[in-house]
Design goal:
The complex is a heterotetramer, with 2 copies of chain A (365 residues) and 2 copies of chain B (326 residues). Chain A is built from 14 helices and 7 strands. Chain A has 365 residues and is α/β, with parallel strands linked by helices. In chain A, the strands form 2 sheets. Chain A has a 5-stranded parallel sheet with strand order 1-2-3-7-6, sandwiched between helices. Chain A has a two-stranded antiparallel sheet with strand order 4-5. Chain A starts with a helix and ends with a helix. Chain B has 2 domains: 183 residues, Rossmann fold; 128 residues, 3-Layer(aba) Sandwich (Rossmann fold), CATH 3.40.50. Helix content of chain B is 36%, strand content 20%. Chain B is built from 12 helices and 14 strands. The N and C termini of chain B lie far apart (46 Å). The chains are: A alpha/beta (365), B alpha/beta (326). The complex binds thiamine diphosphate (2 copies) and magnesium ion (2 copies). One thiamine diphosphate sits at the interface of chains D and B.
């Protein structure tokens, strides 16, 4: 990249020759970096670990159901657990919001959305779209980057009303190429909205690698172009992600506006269950990133502190599996939806056209 | 009552509703300090402050998209899109996002948002400023579409739109902003959605129009009257919801029908009106229904736009031809 | 001749044309290394190299917009939009920019660009992936719209599209990608735009469909045949240009008509077909023409999509009702 | 802005506390900065001055025609002459392209588009849209930022074909908030397209001031987020604009990819003839910027060098006025367009539908 900047230029804004070192707290070995602090209480670390394991277990279950043909296409979170949970744990679910793309399961669960709803959604049931009363999340977003403007509006609205909330909006490296990313960051910078842009750089947008996605060395480098800070963080490091998010939350609550977080992680699974990543992902990359596993890392850390062992792990895994199982059972017990569901919730009150069409349809025409 | 033009009626509705409901905010390009490029929001920022009448960056998609977030926090955004042609940049946010949020969440989140926008030709604007694209939005289930033709309806439909729990695209005939005037109550009133207005009673042929095409239809009816033809002119007022009963009644009354609109013919909303009537009033029809529209070409340069916009003479000719059909 | 499914026919056209004309490039999200999420461009990058089969960043508007610039330099871009629902982000680039560049510059600059995109439901996709929005594009004068229903037409219309000097939106029925198979010549041939195809000869009622709705119409015709009704099924093939003569002839033949499409009814292209026929073939009509379409609601969750998509049974019922109409 | 960045944060990318000093060569006084060189030959300086004066004269003429009701709405260039001409003069019209918004008259003329066409366009004649054979400009763009993707495609296409051209695309501070700006810069960075993004920051987007347009201190700071350099330049300084553009052209021709230039200037006239800037522009700002006038500055410079005086100025003004007059006369002599023009050039060949509609229309139906 340095070569790109020659011949000499008067330009005051030059791209970095190489990426900055992402913020890091907990090394791949599970040991804290020299002088670093976890920045989370033991209880919080355990809660975070549980959420990460739950997220992974939920998707593992879904994967097996999907293979049995019992579930639709979905996007598993494998490998991105620390980014999702580290950010979510820095939020206060009572006031703060999570605005997801489609790969943010544990963040949504942490906000209070019942797992059963998520199971229902994955089963293709319209009621899977219901947001439980008082839960501060928006619906799964399938149109890439389209949720980012919503998040800015939410944050701006909370600010206008002097409400305490902060909004965390999630999206991928791919989504960051969409115009909506730019328009949103720019508006947020102008109105100093309390919003945190969580760019999950997992290396891929389906089969499109990061270097085809952008010529920038760091996507976090975009933030100054909107007037707010950008931070690059090791996305597989729970503590580092939590730390930079907590800082962003503090800034946002203090009225200092947005932060862009680029979390470097890796999509360890397929893009969705419809995808075959062996066609394009280098197994060596998977191996390298497997060594940096976010869950493993926290377990090692806890074990070194004497707070984790094989037995605990097994108990947790059983509990979590049971919880996931229960969610799917509850979802399966939900009454199936019929054709009338198509005509509901189009408008607050059905229009004459909808009533005519519904009556014809349900009347067997 | 007061004599107002379209812009004044719109402004009067905005002011009234902002006073009545403090959740209502006005946002868009140049709506604040300037009061809008057509002055529809003139004086509102001075009155309500810059936290309720908001100049935004120049970015239609995030204007629409952030309004959805604002609505979820309980605000009631009224967006001005400077010209309808520039809503294409926000098409996905309007048609896929705000229109469907209720459906997607089974009513958990809703979008009480009004998008106001001028459209239509005849005032020598540059490219895109005159585009009529109501039909492109009509395919977006979840969105309502209101298109007032006179100051009374402009105020009443706008108040109804802002209070409607669903997103409403509220389109304003640019050409009529100052030209079309009428008596408007100073007080609060609404015009319900989905009820067409009989503009002129007639017995021979029904002329269906909306927004800026209504005065054209009226003038055509006058020309027709001189030829001894009695035209029944109706103004749809809202395309979604459509006044199905009213439409059928209006056409059954005469058995003949001409639809007038300013957008291109192909897949325009006139096609929907005719298809609907053909299904629902077939046996009353004595002649083929006709459309008078812009040709299937892009809106042209100002020097030739007068050849592009449907004229009263063209409508009158279509009326006469319809009468001649056996 | 070879037996091919839709995807294979499309790929075969792309390969043939890229060999024949080195100006042709393929670009879009995941079209290169992966060969497209549905493998329509499988093997092309390996064959033609990454300078002619190009993986782009995830940004629909600049994909469409840069293609216009590329076309002006003399390249012939064939864009894959991963799903039609995500062309809304590029709506202004497609409908206002590439479609109008010829008109705006009086032919100085033109846009020989093809936009391929799958659409339609029945395969349990997430939101937006199944949206049918051909009618929203039909209002954009300057754009052509091709919608093949079988592998033969898929190849022939795609070759025609790429060679057409104007921008063409070429839509592919997702559900039929692998399901619909047929004999396809290995060699070069084109299917001309604006000529409908008679799918099945019949005498009692004309059924009009395009793309994924054609097999539904065919199946309905079989059901009708069992009830002693002879349905004449036609496939429009291209919506723009519309085969005006062919349509009138097809409906005059029977005097009765059912139009089938997968998009919502309101302002769908079916409305245009009916409005057009009503104007041009009114006196041949013995009964109201009927539409069988999706209801005016957003495309629903996979669990209930089967209730949403028009079925052969619904079409057969409409056929029977049309026959019963006096 | 500095305050915004506190409390302490781990962020590696922080917004600048205040704008950088724009590149400057020729001071407001008309004197070169210490050690600075004009970087243009005398002939080139005179050609540039002539273009700047021509641009201003053309718009002055249009303004008077418009007031007489003889012309449609248009956007005058007043005050932005140095940005337009300084960039254009760094291009080679034989190979390079100009992709305008709607306020780039002298850049288009310099590329070779006949003034008569521009006059026709302003008269509302469809033939005003014709691009003269071999002239490398795109049509006036009315939809903001929509031209930026086209420019990237053009540049990319030239590169693919190993043709020597570079593309300069013009847009405003307002347009830079649109998603198309972002998507274009990002794609250009990936494919290293030979494109120069000329962001004319004239302080306003109609009535919307720069600080409502973005929270960024410098819009040029966005470039590193796409992997290429960004430069802030005094847009009223012909030599500075020319210098940074020439550098960008050199980089682009060398295959080093795009540059973003933010040219600081001021819209001295109305947004368009439909606008009343007295409602929002502070007269003090106009006064301040009037002292920085780009034409005046070059004339002073030339005068100090002994290459300019009142008499020359008068002769030039007369010549230019005559040239403008001739363009409008030629345009007015162009045959008026009739209704058939609506049906031409919609497609290469008219469709049956268009033929039917045209025949009905011209046949008087
Ligand atoms: C607007 C839009 N364009 C295209 C798609 C199709 N698509 C779905 S996911 C995906 C890649 C997303 O990549 P990224 O944003 O990095 O998120 P990730 O899947 O890696 O979490 C694409 C192209 C879409 N859903 N929305
Ligand atoms: C997409 C789009 N949105 C809105 C408009 C209406 N409009 C025309 S010019 C303008 C302001 C443009 O500001 P800027 O980009 O800074 O350019 P300037 O006029 O200052 O040269 C606006 C909002 C438009 N033409 N296009
Ligand atoms: Mg990704
Ligand atoms: Mg500006």
């Amino acid at each position: 990249m340095a070569a790109k900047s020659s011949p000499p230029t008067s330009a005051q804004f030059l791209p970095d020759a190489k990426p900055v070192a992402p913020v890091s707290v907990l090394a791949e070995t599970g040991k804290l970096n020299r002088g670093a602090k976890p920045g989370m209480t033991k209880t919080a670390v355990l809660e975070a670990l549980r959420l990460m394991m739950l997220g992974r277990a939920f998707d593992t279950k879904c994967l097996s159901l999907q293979r049995q043909g019992k579930l639709g296409t979905f996007a598993p979170i494998f490998g991105q657990e620390a980014t999702l949970v580290g950010t979510a744990m820095a939020l206060d679910p009572a006031h703060d919001w999570v605005v997801p793309q489609y790969r943010e399961l544990p963040a949504i669960i942490r906000q209070g959305q019942p797992m059963e709803r998520i199971a229902l959604y994955r089963q293709g049931h319209p009621d899977g779209g219901i947001i439980a009363e008082g839960v501060n999340v928006m619906a799964t977003q399938v149109s890439l980057a389209a949720q980012i403007p919503h998040a800015v509006g939410l944050a701006w609205g909370l600010k206008m009303q002097n409400r305490p909330g902060v909004v965390a909006v999630y999206f991928g490296d791919g989504a960051s190429s969409e115009g909506d990313f730019h328009e949103s960051c720019n508006l947020a910078g102008v109105v100093e909205a309390p919003v945190i842009f969580v760019l999950q750089n997992n290396g891929w947008a389906i089969s499109t690698p990061r270097d085809i996605q952008s010529g920038a060395t760091d996507l976090a480098a975009r933030a100054p172009g909107y007037g707010f800070p950008g931070v690059s963080v090791d996305g597989n490091d729970l503590f580092a992600v939590h730390k930079v998010t907590a800082e962003a939350v503090t800034r946002a609550r203090a009225g200092l506006g947005p932060t862009l977080i680029e979390a470097h992680c890796f999509r360890m699974g397929p893009h969705t269950t419809a995808d075959d990543p062996t066609r394009y992902v280098d197994p060596a990359d998977l191996e390298r990133w497997a060594k940096r596993d976010p869950i493993d890392r926290v377990q090692k850390y806890l074990a070194a502190e004497g707070n984790w062992d094989k037995a605990t792990e097994e108990t947790w895994e059983q509990d979590i599996a049971a919880e996931v199982e229960a969610a799917f059972e509850a979802a399966s017990a939900h009454p199936r939806a019929g054709p009338e569901a198509i005509y509901e919730h189009v408008y607050a009150e059905p229009t004459p056209t909808i009533i005519r069409q519904r009556d014809a349809h349900l009347g067997g025409q | 009552m007061a004599e107002m033009n379209m812009v004044e009626a719109i402004r009067s509705a905005l002011k009234l509703e902002m006073e009545r409901d403090e959740r209502v905010i006005v946002m868009g390009e140049d709506v604040g300090h300037l009061g809008g490029v057509f002055r529809a929001t003139d004086g509102l920022q001075q009155f309500f402050g810059s936290s309720r009448v908001i100049d935004t960056p120049l970015a239609e998609s995030v204007i629409a998209g952030s309004a959805l977030g604002l609505a979820i926090t309980g605000m009631v955004p009224v967006i001005e899109m400077q010209f309808l042609g520039f809503t294409q940049q926000a098409f996905h946010q309007i048609c896929q996002q705000m229109s469907r949020v209720r459906f997607r969440t089974r009513g958990s989140h809703t979008a009480q948002i009004t998008i106001r926008s001028p459209f239509g030709g005849g005032v020598r604007t540059p490219e895109f400023h005159s585009d009529s694209m109501e039909a492109q939005f009509a395919q977006s289930s979840g969105l309502k579409i209101a298109m007032p033709a006179n100051p009374y309806d402009a105020k009443g439909l706008l108040l109804e739109a802002i209070r409607d729990p669903d997103p409403v695209l509220y389109l304003e005939p640019l050409r009529g902003y100052r030209l079309i005037t009428g008596e408007v109550p100073r007080d609060d009133y609404t015009v319900p959605f989905g009820r067409l207005r009989v503009v002129r009673e007639g017995t021979d042929v029904t002329v269906i129009a909306w927004s800026g095409a209504v005065p054209v239809a009226e003038k055509a009816a006058e020309i027709a009257a001189e030829q001894g033809i009695s035209a029944h002119v109706v103004d749809l007022r809202t395309l979604v919801p459509l006044d199905e009963e009213g439409l059928v009644a209006a056409v059954e009354k005469t058995g003949r029908c001409v639809v007038v609109h300013e957008s291109v013919a192909l897949a325009g909303f006139g096609a929907e009106v005719i298809a609907f009537l053909q299904e629902q009033a077939f046996y009353s029809l004595e002649a083929p229904m006709r459309r008078v529209t812009a040709p299937d070409a892009p809106y042209p340069m100002p020097g030739i736009e007068d050849f592009y916009i449907p004229t009263a003479e063209q409508v009158a000719r279509a009326i006469a031809q319809t009468m001649a059909d056996q």
